[in-house]
C-alpha cells in the first residue's frame, strides 16, 4: 500500500483493501508458508476443473481501476482468480481455501471470512465501472475448498454482500486520516539537533551523508564508536521524513542494547511528536493472567476479535509519550485478554519509526511481521541497519534450517491424531531413521544427502496433497512438518552455498555459507538504506558479504581526530593463546592480569576473552594466585537491565571485569568509555574451527588459502576486537592502555588488520618490559 497523505492518494491491491481491519480476526491472523503452498495447490486444481467445464474461462485476469471516495483517490489493482463466461453474463469467481468443514451456512462463512467476501465484492464493484465490462452483466461468487477433504461450496454474492466494497473504504479512512495528521504534525515540528555542539568530524559526516544519499540508494556509513553515528543518522532520517522523501523508517540492530540509546536519542530530538514502536520478540511479550495466557503461537489469537472489540481498542489511543512500551502492552493484555504481542503489532501501522532486531527484515520466518502491515511501503521507507558488521552472519543464521528426529517424531504423532495419511506418516518415519544414522559434527556424504533429499521431497509432495484436520493439530507440529519443504529446497541448493551437516545426534542442519544474495534482495525494495558500524572495514569484504558493489553503494566515512594517540598499545609476545597451546600459559596470563590490576588500583581492568570457558579457567588461576582480587565474569542469559547493573556495579566494586568478545557487553554496552584505564585482549579470538568454518574455507572464491583464512577467520576476529576497544575511547580526552596478549598479534597477517589507532605498538618479550610499559604515562 502506497499512501501520499498530503495529496490524499492511495495505491493498493484488492487484497490489501479487503483484508484491512480496525479489529483483527483470529482467522488467518498472521501467515505461514504452508498456507500459501496449500492454497496454491488447490487454486491450480480448481483452475483445471473449471477449464474442463468452461473452455473460454480465463484465469488470473488483471484488473486496475481508480475510485474516488470522501476526498481520497484510490488506485486499486488485483487479479481475478477465474472469469467465467455464462449464458448471459460473466461470473467473477474467487477461489478460497478454508480449514472449516463444508458445507457451512453462508452467515457462518461470512462471519469467519469477511475479507473473502469483501475481496469478491471489490472485484465486482471495480469491474462494473471499467469499459471492458460495460457490455456485460456481472455477478460474483466465492468458491470455497476445504483443505482437508477437497470439498467444495459455492456461495454467490448477494446485493447486501456487495456493500462490503464501500464498507472497506469507510473502514480504511480513519487510518488514512491518521497518517495524514501524523505527516502534517511531523512537518510542523522544529527538530532539536542531535548535538548542542558539534565535535570534530561530525559536521563533515553530516555533509558526507547528505551527499552520499544523493549518489546511491544504499549508503555504507563507518565512524568510530562514540563518534555520534546514531545521532547523525537519526537527524538525517527525521529531516528526510519531514521533507516527505520517506513516510517511515526502520531502525534495526543485532543487539537489543543498542535500541535503548537509539530511543533516548530519538526522543531528545522530537519528543512526543513522532510515534515509534520498539518491536521486541514474542517471548518477551508473554504473560500469564486470568484474562489471557500466551501460548507462544497463533493460538494466542483464538478470541482476539471479541476481546479487541470488548475493550474498544483503537491503536492510536494506546500510545503514551509517542510509544507503546513492552510493559504497558503486557498490562493491557492482562486487563483486556488480548495477546500483548498482537497489541504491539497492531500499533505498527500507526507509528512512523520501527525499532527492532535485524530478523524483522532479514529472517524469512519473522519478516512478515513488518511486511504485512497495512500501509507499509518499502519504497517510501528508510532502512537503517546499526551494527551492520554483524549482518552477514545474522542473515546466514536466519536462512539456515534445522530438523531433529525427536521433533519430527512428536510432530508425526500429532499428524497421526489429526488423520494424516499412512503414506505421509511412513515417509516421515523413514526420514526419522535417516536422521538418527547421521554422523555427528560431520557433513553429509553424498549417499546420505541423496537419500535425505529424496525423502524430504517425497514428504513435501505428500504433505501438499494430504488431507488432515489442521484445526486440531498443534501449531508446533504443523511448523515442523512444513519445515521439511524448506529443508528439501536447501538440500537441493548448490554445495558451495550450503553446508548440510549434523550438529548433534539425530539432527540435520542446512547452514547458509553465503547470505549475500539474500541480503541484497532484502535491501533492494527500500527507498533508501544506511548500513552503519564502527567496523565495516575492510569495506570491499563487507560489500561482498552483503551482495553489494561499489557501483550500487556510496560511502560516508567519519573521522575522529581526538582518537589519534588515545590508545597506548602493546603486543605481548610471551604467550601463545591458540586453543591447543593456551593452557601452557594460563599462569602467565593470570599473573599478567594481576600485575596490571596493581597499576590500576581504583579503576577495574577490562579483560576480553574468546569464550566463557577461557575466562573461567583464568579466573580459577587468578583466584589461587591472588585470592583477594575481586574479579567479575559477565553473567549469561540476562536482560538489558541486568547487563547494565553488572557494568555499573563492576565499575564500582571490581578489580577486573572479564568480558566475552562479540557479546553485548563487548559490543553493545557504552558505559566503559572514559572509565577504563587498562584493557587486555587475551588472544585474537578467531572463530571456532568447526564444520561450518571448514566449509567456508573450502568454498571461498579465492584459491589462495592465506587470503581465504584472512577473510574467514582473521577479519571477523579483528572486527570483534575493534568493537570492544572502541568502547573504551568514546569522547575527546578519553585514554586507554591496551595489551594485545598473544604473539600472533605481531604477525603481519594479524597486525595489518588492526585499525590505524592500534598500529603504533610496543613489543613485550619479558616480564620486565611488561612492568615498564604498564608504568608509562
Which descriptors apply to this entry?
18% strand; alpha/beta; 777 residues; 4 domains; seven-stranded parallel beta sheet; seven-stranded mixed beta sheet; Lambda Exonuclease, Chain A; globular; Fumarase C, Chain B, domain 1
Explain the overall architecture:
- The chain is an alpha/beta fold.
- It folds into four domains: 2-175, Lambda Exonuclease, Chain A (Alpha-Beta Complex), CATH 3.90.320; 276-350, no CATH class; 399-512, Fumarase C, Chain B, domain 1, CATH 1.10.275; 561-775, 3-Layer(aba) Sandwich (Rossmann fold), CATH 3.40.50.300.
- The chain contains 31 helices and 24 strands.
- The strands form four sheets. Strands 1, 2, 3, 4, 5, 6 and 7 form a seven-stranded mixed sheet that branches.
- Strand 1 (2-4) and strand 2 (9-13) form a beta hairpin.
- The longest helix has 25 residues, at 164-188.
Question: What is the fold's blueprint, element by element?
Answer:
Elements: E1 2-4, E2 9-13, H1 14-19, H2 33-53, E3 58-69, E4 72-85, E5 90-98, H3 106-112, H4 114-127, E6 138-146, E7 152-156, H5 164-188, H6 202-215, E8 218-222, H7 229-242, E9 248-253, H8 257-270, E10 276-279, H9 282-285, H10 304-310, H11 315-318, H12 326-336, H13 340-347, E11 353-357, H14 359-362, H15 368-371, E12 381-385, H16 391-399, E13 401-404, H17 405-417, H18 422-436, H19 446-465, H20 475-481, H21 483-491, E14 498-501, E15 507-512, H22 516-523, E16 528-533, H23 539-545, E17 553-557, E18 567-572, H24 586-598, E19 605-609, H25 612-625, E20 631-633, H26 640-653, E21 656-660, H27 664-667, E22 678-682, H28 691-698, H29 705-726, E23 736-741, H30 748-751, E24 761-764, H31 767-775
Parallel strand pairs: 2-4, 5-6, 8-16, 8-17, 9-11, 9-12, 10-11, 12-16, 18-23, 18-24, 19-21, 19-22, 20-21, 22-23
Antiparallel strand pairs: 1-2, 3-4, 4-5, 6-7, 13-15, 14-15
Helix pairs in contact: 4-5, 7-8, 12-13, 17-18, 17-20, 18-19, 19-21, 24-25
Amino acid at each position: 500500500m502506497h499512501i501520499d497523505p498530503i495529496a490524499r492518494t492511495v495505491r493498493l491491491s484488492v487484497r490489501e483493501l479487503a483484508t484491512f481491519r480496525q479489529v483483527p480476526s483470529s482467522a488467518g491472523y498472521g501467515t505461514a508458508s504452508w498456507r500459501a503452498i496449500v492454497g496454491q495447490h488447490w487454486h491450480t486444481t480448481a483452475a483445471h476443473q473449471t477449464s474442463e467445464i468452461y473452455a473460454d474461462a480465463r484465469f488470473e485476469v488483471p484488473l486496475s481501476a481508480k475510485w474516488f471516495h470522501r476526498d481520497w483517490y484510490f488506485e486499486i489493482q488485483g487479479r481475478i482468480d477465474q472469469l467465467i463466461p455464462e449464458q448471459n453474463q460473466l461470473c467473477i469467481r474467487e477461489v478460497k481455501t478454508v480449514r472449516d468443514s463444508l458445507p457451512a451456512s453462508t452467515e457462518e462463512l461470512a462471519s469467519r471470512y469477511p475479507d473473502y467476501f469483501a475481496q469478491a465484492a471489490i472485484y465486482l464493484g471495480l469491474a462494473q465501472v471499467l469499459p471492458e465490462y460495460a457490455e456485460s452483466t456481472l455477478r460474483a461468487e466465492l468458491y470455497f475448498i476445504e483443505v482437508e477433504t477437497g470439498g467444495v461450496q459455492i456461495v454467490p454474492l448477494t446485493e447486501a454482500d456487495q456493500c462490503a466494497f464501500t464498507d472497506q473504504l469507510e473502514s480504511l479512512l480513519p487510518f488514512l486520516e491518521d497518517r495524514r495528521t501524523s505527516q502534517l504534525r511531523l512537518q510542523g515540528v522544529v527538530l532539536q539537533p542531535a548535538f548542542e555542539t558539534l565535535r570534530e568530524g561530525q559536521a563533515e559526516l553530516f555533509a558526507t551523508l547528505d551527499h552520499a544519499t544523493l549518489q546511491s540508494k544504499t549508503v555504507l556509513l563507518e565512524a568510530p564508536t562514540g563518534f555520534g553515528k546514531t545521532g547523525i543518522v537519526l537527524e538525517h532520517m527525521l529531516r528526510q521524513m519531514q521533507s516527505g522523501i520517506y513516510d517511515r523508517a526502520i531502525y534495526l540492530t543485532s543487539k537489543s542494547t543498542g535500541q535503548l540509546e537509539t530511543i533516548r536519542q530519538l526522543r531528545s530530538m522530537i519528543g512526543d511528536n513522532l510515534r515509534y514502536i520498539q518491536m521486541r520478540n514474542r517471548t518477551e511479550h508473554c504473560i500469564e493472567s486470568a484474562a489471557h495466557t500466551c501460548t507462544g503461537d497463533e493460538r494466542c489469537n483464538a478470541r482476539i476479535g471479541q476481546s479487541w472489540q470488548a475493550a474498544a481498542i483503537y491503536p492510536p489511543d494506546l500510545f503514551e509519550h509517542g510509544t507503546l512500551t513492552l510493559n504497558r502492552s503486557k498490562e493491557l493484555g492482562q486487563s483486556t485478554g488480548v495477546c500483548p504481542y498482537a497489541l504491539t503489532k497492531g500499533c505498527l501501522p500507526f507509528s512512523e519509526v520501527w525499532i527492532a532486531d535485524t530478523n524483522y527484515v532479514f529472517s524469512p520466518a519473522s519478516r512478515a511481521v513488518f511486511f504485512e502491515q497495512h500501509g507499509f511501503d518499502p519504497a517510501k521507507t528508510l532502512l537503517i541497519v546499526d551494527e551492520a558488521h554483524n549482518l552477514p552472519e545474522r542473515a546466514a543464521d536466519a536462512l539456515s534450517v534445522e530438523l531433529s528426529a525427536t521433533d519430527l517424531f512428536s510432530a508425526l504423532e500429532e499428524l497421526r491424531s489429526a488423520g494424516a495419511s499412512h503414506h505421509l506418516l511412513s515417509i516421515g518415519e523413514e526420514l526419522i531413521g535417516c536422521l538418527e544414522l547421521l554422523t555427528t559434527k560431520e557433513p553429509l556424504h553424498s549417499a546420505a544427502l541423496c537419500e535425505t533429499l529424496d525423502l524430504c521431497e517425497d514428504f513435501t509432495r505428500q504433505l501438499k496433497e494430504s488431507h488432515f484436520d489442521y484445526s486440531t493439530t498443534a501449531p508446533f507440529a504443523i511448523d515442523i512438518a512444513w519445515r521439511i519443504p524448506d529443508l528439501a529446497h536447501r538440500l537441493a541448493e548448490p554445495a558451495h552455498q550450503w553446508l548440510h551437516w549434523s550438529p548433534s545426534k539425530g539432527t540435520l542442519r542446512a547452514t547458509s555459507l553465503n547470505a549475500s544474495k539474500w541480503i541484497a534482495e532484502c535491501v533492494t525494495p527500500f527507498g533508501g538504506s544506511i548500513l552503519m558500524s564502527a567496523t565495516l572495514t575492510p569495506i570491499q569484504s563487507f560489500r561482498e558479504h552483503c551482495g553489494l558493489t561499489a557501483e550500487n553503494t556510496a560511502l560516508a566515512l567519519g573521522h575522529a581526530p581526538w582518537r589519534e594517540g588515545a590508545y597506548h598499545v602493546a603486543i605481548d609476545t610471551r604467550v601463545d593463546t591458540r586453543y591447543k597451546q593456551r593452557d601452557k600459559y594460563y599462569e602467565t596470563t593470570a599473573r599478567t592480569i594481576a600485575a596490571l590490576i596493581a597499576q590500576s588500583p581504583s579503576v577495574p581492568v577490562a579483560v576480553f576473552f574468546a569464550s566463557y570457558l577461557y575466562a573461567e579457567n583464568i579466573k580459577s588461576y587468578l583466584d589461587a594466585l591472588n585470592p583477594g582480587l575481586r574479579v567479575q565474569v559477565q553473567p549469561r542469559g540476562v536482560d538489558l537491565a541486568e547487563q547494565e547493573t553488572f557494568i555499573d556495579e563492576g565499575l564500582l566494586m571490581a578489580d577486573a571485569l572479564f568480558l566475552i568478545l562479540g557479546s553485548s557487553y563487548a559490543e553493545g554496552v557504552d558505559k566503559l568509555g572514559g572509565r577504563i584505564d587498562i584493557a587486555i585482549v587475551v588472544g585474537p579470538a578467531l572463530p571456532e574451527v568447526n564444520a561450518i568454518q571448514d566449509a567456508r574455507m573450502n568454498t571461498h572464491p579465492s584459491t589462495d588459502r592465506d587470503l581465504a583464512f584472512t577473510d574467514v577467520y582473521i577479519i571477523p576476529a579483528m572486527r570483534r576486537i575493534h568493537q570492544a576497544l572502541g568502547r573504551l575511547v568514546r569522547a575527546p580526552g578519553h585514554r586507554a592502555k591496551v595489551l594485545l596478549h598473544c604473539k600472533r598479534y605481531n604477525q603481519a597477517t594479524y597486525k595489518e588488520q588492526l585499525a590505524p589507532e592500534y598500529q603504533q605498538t610496543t613489543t613485550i618479550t619479558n616480564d620486565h618490559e611488561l612492568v615498564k610499559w604498564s608504568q608509562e604515562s
